[in-house]
Design a protein that fits this description.
single chain, mainly beta, 34 strands, seven-stranded mixed beta sheet, five-stranded mixed β-barrel, 560 residues
Length: 560
């Protein structure tokens, strides 16, 4: 199998120019006391400096990701987000020693600098930063975020690629799970190199990394411009009796069923049957109320079956619990102790409701008291999907709802499928959606109507849209182009295209989840328009604190 070493950007920074006599290593402004008005990065990271405070910090630029970058001074580092330099202004360059002015900000447990007002280069060659070797992921804290780190010979076990959102490589370091992650700001070069790593890596291959420590509700390794990653063959063949391999398998299984330990299971679960080269044999024991409900919780092969009793059958808030066990084996021989997880079901049956009923309930004044809103089962035809599978739409006749965070589900979504989902119904900026999805299956149901498109040709028809039209498939003809609100400094983000229809203002809101290629196609299309051009639209009725049109594919617009 072909292996490659991918160098994404030069990480080693050149030493300072020599002079007579030679300067000692690492001599520069980073060794000086804090400058007038400078805030110590350490004080920002540990909370000595409150959030929303204007600060000035100095450090070496170690890595970049779109309009964000990392700076480090000595052993302290910080993430700088949202810098959009004006034309002809200094652009942060890896290796430069810079001064940054901005505002402290707390985001997902990380203290960073945002609302950047100025970045200036103090010196073209900064301090050479020696990456810290990571051997224990659990010891990392938010105070370490942003620092240059490195690890070697971590074992690869899985990867996922997205060209528009985050891509991940999952490894184990010293028996602990860890994630190497890109995001949509990492750029095509980094994401392309990352995709090659993932496609060529095999289970238990060695992965080496050097780059900044990222943080998003926990430690991650940020694969951005300035970082390096490589993969190589593991010279040691898989040994099922090896304690490290067993530890990795147990970590994978525990992470897979973490939700069972304290959560509530409402439907059958397909259990994984392959874990780091092992097979897994499951069994269930200690089922409460087993005499009354012998089939409430059972396992057959790799399927955990749940048959929830009704409230009448199991009244008074009672519940049924059991213990699920998993035994690792290889070639017929068991290894290690059994793993176990708690399984619990409450005495309720989730409600199967129509999309119309769900939308009606979501818009009602007493929606928050609806007992079934957290366990809603809906059926509908898939009409739209985001490129990164963060969201999609399902429709039943004239009514539709958004389903959110599809990428986290082990299901292949396709437009035109009739699916059943179970999740939590909520309103997001006035639009109904189903999130926290615990189940999705393809079904057959003759009672579900094919999606019916809404055809709009006049401004009065557009003004007549109501909450029952949100997310519905729509065709609008005769739009008059006005302008495009496009942020050139951050091209891959939500933006608006403005039209009128019989004098009525109509906004098309482009969401970055459609993907870079589709956004580029929209930008090229709007660049070809002049004010007054007539355009037809096919997409869905969007809603974000007001009605908009929502395109999902590259062919949403055509000139009339």
């Amino acid at each position: 199998m072909k292996k490659s070493l991918l160098l994404l950007a030069a990480l080693v920074i050149a030493p300072l120019a020599s002079c007579e006599p030679p300067a000692p290593p690492h001599t520069g402004p980073w060794d000086d006391p804090l400058a007038d008005g400078e805030t110590a990065i350490h004080d920002i990271k540990v909370g000595t400096v409150a959030a929303d405070q204007e600060v000035m910090v100095r450090g070496t630029v170690t890595a970049k990701a779109g309009n964000a970058f990392y700076i480090q001074r000595g052993s302290e580092a910080v993430y700088v987000y949202g810098y959009q330099p004006a034309e002809d202004a200094y652009v942060p360059t890896i290796g430069h020693y810079v001064e940054v002015k901005g505002t402290t900000d707390a985001y997902n447990g990380l203290i960073q600098i945002s609302d950047v007002t100025e970045v200036a280069s103090i010196q073209a060659e900064g301090q050479e930063i020696t990456p810290v070797a990571v051997t224990n992921v659990a010891s990392l804290t938010a105070a370490d975020a942003g620092e240059l780190v490195t690890f070697t010979n971590a074992t690869f076990y899985e990867g996922s690629v997205s060209t528009t959102a985050a891509s991940n490589v999952y490894v184990t370091i010293g028996g602990t799970r860890a994630t190497v992650r890109t995001d949509r700001y990492s750029g095509e070069t980094v994401n392309g190199a990352f995709a090659e790593i993932i496609n060529e890596a095999s289970y238990l291959d060695y992965v080496n990394f050097t780059g900044p420590l990222g943080w998003y509700n926990g430690a991650q390794f940020a694969l951005v411009e300035g970082a390096t990653i490589s993969v190589s063959a593991n010279p040691t063949p898989f040994d099922p009796s090896d304690a490290s391999a067993q530890a990795s398998a147990k970590l994978e299984l525990d992470a897979e069923y973490e939700s069972l330990k304290a959560g509530v299971v409402t439907d059958s679960i397909e259990l994984i049957d392959f874990s780091f080269g092992y097979n897994v044999t499951y069994r269930v024991e200690n089922v409460t109320h087993a005499d009354e409900f012998p089939n409430a919780i059972s396992v057959s092969g790799t399927t955990l079956t749940i048959e929830s009793p009704t409230p009448d059958e199991l009244p008074g808030g009672q519940f049924i619990t059991a213990k699920l066990h998993g035994q690792l084996s290889y070639d017929g021989e068991n290894y290690g102790e059994e793993l176990s997880w708690n399984v619990r079901i409450d005495s309720f049956n989730p409600n199967l409701v129509t999309i119309e009923e769900a939308v009606t309930a979501a818009q009602s004044d007493d929606f928050n008291s609806a007992e079934w809103k957290d366990n809603t089962i809906l059926r509908g035809y898939v009409t739209e999907l985001y490129t990164d599978l963060d969201g999609g739409l399902i429709q039943d006749g004239e009514h539709a709802v958004m389903i959110y965070k599809l990428a986290s589900l082990n299901f292949t979504f396709e437009v035109g499928q009739l699916i059943e989902i179970m999740g939590s119904l909520s309103l997001y900026n006035g639009a109904p959606q189903v999130g926290y999805i615990s189940k999705v299956v393809e079904v057959e149901d003759a009672t579900i109507e094919q999606p019916v498109a809404l055809n709009v040709t006049t401004g009065d028809e557009y003004k007549a849209l109501d909450v029952y039209d949100i997310h519905r498939t729509i065709t609008v003809t005769g739009l008059t182009y006005v302008s495009t609100e496009w942020d050139e400094s951050d091209p891959y983000y939500h933006y608006n295209i403005n039209f009128t229809l019989d004098g009525e203002a109509v906004t098309v809101r482009v969401n970055y989840h459609v993907g870079n290629a589709i956004m580029d196609a929209y930008k090229a299309f709007t660049d070809s328009l002049t004010a007054g051009d007539s355009v037809n639209f096919t997409g869905s009725v969007g809603y974000y604190s007001g009605f908009q049109l929502s395109p999902w594919t590259a062919d949403a617009f055509v000139k009339a």
